[in-house]
């Protein structure tokens, strides 16, 4: 989800942290969009409110259908695992960035892959029924 700020008017630029932030994606908004997009295919997922979230970084807690918990970091570089528990960031972790939440969850959770495939199949079946 992108926010078009070309026509926005801000009384105080500190509202977004700095002047360059007007052109950048707000990772806090992006994180909530990520959660909303895949919540159906995981056991639990929410933006981590106890960790520092900012315009350039946000954290997301996710529990897969298998019961594994992760803390994810979302930046312009993508998403990556930064901890193996909710609200946990291990600065020494050097995990791979994924461009999308789908790619990341696909690598972590076979049950996510199955739930996503089932949802896609149901959507295609509905489209097929509505097209008749």
From TrEMBL:
A family per Pfam: GSKIP_dom
Family per similarity comment: Belongs to the GSKIP family.
Domain GSKIP: 27-127
Listed InterPro entries: GSKIP, GSKIP_dom, GSKIP_dom_sf
Coiled coil region boundaries: none
Record-given protein name: GSKIP protein
Name of the gene encoding the protein in the UniProt record: Gskip_0
PANTHER family named in the record: GSK3B-INTERACTING PROTEIN
Organism: Polyodon spathula
Domain of life from the UniProt record: Eukaryota
């Amino acid at each position: 989800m992108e926010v078009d700020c070309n026509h926005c008017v801000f009384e105080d630029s500190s509202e977004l942290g700095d002047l360059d932030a007007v052109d950048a994606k707000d990772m806090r908004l992006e994180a909530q969009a990520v959660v909303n997009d895949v919540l159906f295919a995981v056991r639990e997922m929410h933006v981590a409110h106890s960790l520092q979230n900012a315009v350039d970084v946000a954290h997301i807690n996710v529990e897969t259908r298998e019961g594994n918990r992760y803390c994810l970091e979302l930046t312009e570089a993508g998403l990556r695992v930064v901890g193996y528990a909710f609200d946990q960031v291990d600065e020494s972790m050097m995990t791979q960035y994924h461009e999308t939440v789908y790619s990341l969850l696909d690598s972590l959770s076979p049950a996510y892959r199955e739930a996503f495939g089932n949802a896609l199949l149901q959507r295609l079946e509905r489209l097929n029924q509505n097209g008749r």
